[in-house]
Each structure stands twice: as structure tokens, then as C-alpha cells.
Specification:
alpha+beta, 4-stranded antiparallel sheet, 34% helix, transmembrane, transmembrane helix, membrane
Length: 166
Amino acid sequence: MKKISSLLLILLTPIFLFSHSLVLSVMDNEDGTITAQGVFNTGQSAAGALLVLEALHNKEILFEKRLPASNELTIDIPKIPYQIVLDGGEGHTVIKDGIAPPDGFKEVKASKKSKEKAKKRSRTDATIATSNAVTISILIAFILLLATIFISIKNTNKLLLELKNK
């Protein structure tokens, strides 16, 4: 029983070791700019994560840049209502409402031209979606592989013990 529980502990430990989430901090510099900082809650760098400022009324991309090695960017505050999107890859996307400029947001009337001008995301920004069924199937296959190895070792030890006794 001890062997089974220790085997389960070894198998399930990596699930907890690698779980992390992306954290987005937005600070108002009170000079018409904001500083956006992105890190993982494990302390791991989020350098290379895509930071996007999107207009709320038409999803137009106002600013788009990848985080540098310092994990933070200083950006001028847009005059229109916006949201901040930090995309660190599949399952690591954080969205926050934007901070208003010192003189407040200007009213925006949506037009057809501005909707057409909205920049669309490129194919290189696409992420591959995996379903839970695929993930569970891979996990079951891994468990079966380990069980097979465990049984094989046990049977090999029995055979070696029988050969020594003869």
C-alpha cells in the first residue's frame, strides 16, 4: 500500500509544481501615462507576452507590443475608454479595464469606418486549442505506461529470484 501511495504522490506532484497564472499590474504614473507590468505568480518572467490596449466601443487596437525583459511597459493613456489585455499564451490571458486620463475619457461615437479600420489579430497570434478529452486521454496513457513499467519490474524481480534459487 505504501508503494501505491508513494507512486500516486510522485505522479500527481508535477500537476501542482507547474501550475501558475499570469498577473497584470497597472499603475497610474499621474503624468498621462500608465505602467503595465506582467509576471507569473510563481515569479517567472512574462517577457514576450503580448500587451494590447483595445478600444471598448469597437475593439480597435490602440497599442500592441510584447513585454521586454524588464516585464513592464510605460504607455500613454488613450483618450477613449479602453481595456488592457495581456496575452501570455494559451490559458494565460488577463483583461483589465483601462485607467482614465487626468481629464477623463472623451465620448466616442462608433462609425462604420472605425470598425473597418480596427486591426485584426494576425495568424501568428493564434493559439492551438486542446480539449479536455485529449488532455485526459494523454494522462490515462501516461498512467498506463507507468503501471506497465511497474508490473514489468516486479515480474523481472520474481524471475531473477527464481533463477537464483535454482
